[in-house]
Amino acid sequence: MRKICLLTLAVVVLASPAMALDGALKAGLLKLDPETRLEQRCDAEALDRIGKDGSHYKPDRVVAYAMATPTMLTDAIESPGAAFRSKGEWYKLAYVCKTAPDHMKVLSFEYQIGDAIAEADWQKYNLWQ
Question: Which positions make up the signal peptide (predicted)?
Fold first, then answer.
């Protein structure tokens, strides 16, 4: 069931313009358990921030747990081993995201983009084209 919810949310996020929380995205997030909502909301924030930071990246997917398990706090996630996909390539990402108690509003978000992840390593991290 969680996979179906995550897949549904991913489709909504990818189909939505940059991270304005529209009605469909809000509805999708509210259907998730609080921990999953926190992760998905912060992943969506990463997509938005990276896409708007003036860089050449055009992110379309974020995986918080790609290279390391994130630390989940009550209203925050620390993800030192995340990854994001841009133009068919994957890149290392670390972020710290704090949200409101309902996990719908991001209160603070800090991130650092790392090097590209070699295609030979994608399978090891469960990444895909």
Answer: 1-20
